[in-house]
Design goal:
Elements: E1 6-17, E2 20-31, E3 35-39, H1 46-54, E4 61-66, E5 69-70, H2 76-81, E6 84-86, H3 99-104, H4 115-119, H5 122-142, H6 158-171, E7 176-180, H7 188-203, E8 207-211, H8 215-221, E9 224-229, E10 232-237, H9 239-242, H10 246-253, H11 255-262
Length: 263
């Protein structure tokens, strides 16, 4: 459950692309233990913000703090090693690896990869490899992918690739997971399945920030919502209150909010 301590702090973050101000002096924070959503119209700057937080882009100004540490401008692999892991709008599986191998390559701190252990103490790496295989198989079983463990990832359906990407992210031992539109293009049954996995992982201690357009899911599942428009933070709160916020209605919800309120 959420605590009073922020795990992620976005402080006056800005990013330009030529004459386009994609993120404009954006600020908000996410408390540890939250299942939070980042919503807003197309072009609001949400994915650019995720790229800034995850290290894929560097800001022109402002700061990103994770667990109290300033990570502004760090490389993606360095940020991931600290426990901030992201997924993408379009699943990015390693197509020519098996489903099991996709999980194994995500595990951090693999001792068998070091030259010293590989040459002098190979048994250290082999012992850890057995542990990681067992962990990966347990994860695949939890995500309903165990039967596909030896299949190439390229053969999975779109929904199965979504599950694989989430399972692979969990193998990286995250403290905070940034999920970029995890419900996009999936059927209602899989939406419920993904929501169940996310809630279970949150209860296990992982904090979530989701870029998401499925407002039904956001209202049902997320305990904090950040609304972006024109690169800025427009409002924060719970979805029920934001539906009545005139600025949010004008910038994003529009008729959808009116219809929802009328129903």
């Amino acid at each position: 459950m959420p605590t009073d301590a922020p795990i992620l702090e976005i402080d006056n973050l800005s990013r330009r692309f030529g004459g386009l101000q994609a993120v404009d002096d954006c600020s908000f924070s996410i408390q540890e233990g939250m299942l939070a959503a980042l919503i807003g119209p197309n072009g609001a700057g949400k994915t650019t913000l995720v790229n800034l937080v995850a290290g894929a882009l560097s800001p022109n100004s402002g700061h990103v703090r994770f667990g109290g540490l300033d990570i502004t401008g760090w490389s993606p692999h360095r940020i991931a090693a600290r426990g901030l892991v992201r997924t993408f709008q379009i699943s990015r599986e390693w197509a020519q690896l098996t489903v099991l191998e996709n999980l194994l390559v995500a595990a951090p701190d693999q001792r068998g990869e070091g030259i010293w252990n590989a040459i002098v103490r190979p048994s250290v790496g082999r012992a850890q490899d057995r542990e990681l295989v067992a962990q990966a198989l347990d994860s695949l079983d939890a995500f309903g992918l165990y039967a596909m463990r030896n299949e190439y990832a390229a053969t999975l359906s779109g929904g199965q690739k979504r599950l694989l990407e989430l399972a692979r992210a969990v193998m990286a031992r995250p403290r905070l997971l940034l999920l970029d539109e995890p419900m996009a293009g999936v059927n209602p049954a899989l939406t419920d399945q993904l929501a169940g996995h996310i809630e279970q992982l949150r209860r296990g201690g992982i904090t979530f920030l989701l870029v998401e357009h499925n407002l039904e899911f956001v209202e049902k599942s997320c305990d904090h919502v950040v609304v972006m428009a024109l690169g800025r933070t427009l409002a924060t709160g719970v979805m029920g209150d934001l539906r009545r916020n005139p600025e949010v209605i004008g910038a994003y919800l529009g008729g959808e909010s009116v219809a929802s309120a009328a129903g």
